[in-house]
Amino acid sequence: MAKSIEKMTPDEILVASKKLFFGGFALLPMLWVYNILYIWPVRNRADLSPRVRHYVLLSGILSVVMFVVFSVWFGIFVNYRLNWGVPGDTLTVVLVKGV
Amino acid sequence: MPSRAGADSRASARGQLNTPVGAAATTTGGEDNGQNDGDGEDQPCQACGVFPARFQCSACQSVRYCSQECQASDWKIHYRECAEIVAAQKEDQTELQQGAGRPRSATNGAGETGVPGDRYSTDLEMTSRAAASPLRTGAAGEVLGDEGENIRATANRPRRRPREPVRRPRLTPEQRAAYEEAERIADMKFYMLQIYKIIKPVVICICLSILWVKISMAGSDYRPTQSSYTVYRESPNSTASQNFLGSLANAGIIIGQIVIVTIIIVILFKRGHIKVLIGFFMVVVAMLLGFMGYVLILNLIQVLRIPLDYLTMAFALWNFSVTGLISVFWKGPMWVQQMYLTVMSSLMAFSLTGLAEWTTWMLLALLVVWDLIAVLCPFGPLKILVESSRNQNQEVPALLYTVNAVWFMASPPDNILNRETLRSKESSDSEDVTLTNGSSSPGANFHGGHSRATGRDGGASISSSRNSGLDTSFSAHDGMSRTSSTMALVPNRNGDSPTGDRDTIELRERARSGDSGSSPRNLNHGEGSPLSGRASRSASGGQRQSRDPRRDSREVDDEEEHRETSDDDDDDDGGGLKLGLGDFVFYSVLVARAAMFDWVTTMCCMVAVLTGMNATIFLLAIYQKALPALPISICFGMLFYFATRFALVPFLAVLAQSQVFI
């Protein structure tokens, strides 16, 4: 990181935001969150391309969606893994003792 | 208000434009007019060195310019000095003639020199910030931070060589002495601030390591184990000498690996295989985050009894590692990067807690020796690395500094590296000569110095050459910063650094600028790019100037000023001190090893290590050269560990049993 986002030109910001946004589709919702964190300090800059806001907004929506999806999955797993029997145990990384 | 208001036309409301020499007396009622008239012919323009310099700063009347542009470009540099001169003048005047006409800014009252400077810098700060980000007007609050600004401003001064007396005829020897004394004090203050800033990530890293160790000790099957290349395994019933020799062998193997990797890296770097190095470090970081993250998660979920499925874990690890890679090697918010580096260090330390006890202590002891050799010996690899990074002005050291430390195990508080570097620079200009291919106009130098801020702004500055050098050095120093663009610009930089002096300065600047790496927070205000851009433009416009014998002394002064200004800028980035990740790692290893014994030892070791770090930084302030950060801390830590373990803890046990204090 050579320079802070405040000193980047609008084009650079756009490129970075775009890359982070599309990178997020590689099962990387963290990159979407990262995108938001990164762009946040300059979100109100006048010369900011509207597409950046677009990307950031989409990133936020998609990351929330992913978060919900994984939370739901995790909830299902925690509650039903014992009912699933062997497949449930296979999925578990470390078998919890005593449960 | 001194009149270099031209510095930015936005600020012109608060100052008047420079006045022709003759007119100065009338506008500002300066008593010094006659004197200035006298040397009007032989004093070159302060900014570009051109003759004739027909204008002078109407506030202090001690510097001259050929045009308003030059004044504007120099204002960033001159404003503080201007304030000092004005204040000095004012003191003189009050002594000589009470109530005589004096420069307006002096009439503002405020007795001490600091105050006007303070105000000016604040003003400038405000305008530039506003210029950089018109919408960030929330900065109003920041303006109030002028006290900090002032501290920084004074803190910067010590870097400068003693002022040229020529420039300040009005400073009496006592004043100068007091001034230098203040500089020393300010220097110490600067280092204290640095300590505060650097201690936070170190403490966080150590605490994380303790946490990992404590968690993994609570009945986990997945503790990191001794790696397979260790030849000796301690067993409870082996004798002390067996343990000693065996652990020496183990630690020797590890140190050997470190040394070899270090040397390979240095060679690669000197040969310019930057991409290989970056690739290597990316692999290292990815492995560290991915694999050690995996081990840590195994520990966590077992001890905390979290039912976790492979899908979620793989997903989380993938996200964690890739985001870490991006933040460390690409771009992103500084704090995320710092967070990742801290976590990485603690993970590395955690993985090293798998070593057996004797081996750990032996390893730490050998590391102290290695650190001393690598940093202080004339041909120490780290020293060579630092020097070559300076000579080539490559950014990889940044990378090396981030990751380096993990592998080099011992990078000194790095600010100092640069300092040391520049020190050697000072001593031998020849190096620079080798770097220089042509273009030896002093103006180029100027240009470099002036446009520094622009360099940091990065972007579209007209004067990309020297700038880029600065930018690079900044990023190189930055610990976490690297751009691809800087590398491309490196050759330019070599092209225009005729005098060693100039480089020295810049190195100092960069020494100052460093450290955001380890500093927990990084305040990057948008320093007015328009302003500095303009400055650099006009400065580069001045390249045509001819060399003048008197200029040399002048240049020295200028340098100082540049440094001052840029220091000012840079301190916003968190100051100049930098600690290698290796230091983080091995501090943490020591404390984590202590944490495997008991809490009393842990706390003693933590305090000892931090004290050692402070002592190192203190030495740094005194010696002003690169110092290895491990030896003092590790020695303290080991001393306290064994003292606590074999004296204090048994003593406490006895106390607890016999209940002496109850």
UniProtKB/TrEMBL annotation, chain A:
| Keywords for this protein | Membrane, Notch signaling pathway, Transmembrane, Transmembrane helix
Q: Which Pfam families match?
A: PEN-2
**InterPro entries per the record?**
Gamma_Secretase_Asp_P_PEN2
- GO CC annotations, alphabetized: gamma-secretase complex
Coarsely, its chief localization is membrane
Q: Is-annotated flag, keyword Cytoplasm?
A: no
Transmembrane ranges, per UniProt, are: 20-40, 52-76
Subcellular localization(s) per the UniProt record: Membrane
Describe its membrane topology.
Answer: Multi-pass membrane protein
Instruction: Cite the PANTHER family for this sequence.
Output: GAMMA-SECRETASE SUBUNIT PEN-2 (PTHR16318:SF0)
Give the family this protein belongs to, as stated in its UniProt record: Belongs to the PEN-2 family.
Q: What is this protein called?
A: Gamma-secretase subunit pen-2
Source organism of this protein record? Linnemannia gamsii
From TrEMBL, chain B:
Basic and acidic residues bias: start-end ranges? 163-174, 499-513, 545-554
Family annotation (Gene3D superfamilies)? 6.10.140.2220, Presenilin
Pinpoint the MYND-type domain residues: 45-82
Q: Which domain of life is it from?
A: Eukaryota
Where along the chain is composition biased (Polar residues)? 433-443, 461-487
Instruction: Give the UniProt record's GO annotations in the biological process aspect.
Output: macropinocytosis; membrane protein ectodomain proteolysis; protein processing
Does the keyword section mention Acetylation? no
Membrane-crossing residues?
Answer: 198-215, 244-269, 276-298, 310-330, 362-382, 599-623, 629-656
What membrane topology is given?
Multi-pass membrane protein
- Domain comment in the entry: The PAL motif is required for normal active site conformation.
What name does this protein carry?
A: Presenilin
Q: Which organism is it from?
A: Linnemannia gamsii
User: Source gene?
Assistant: PSEN1
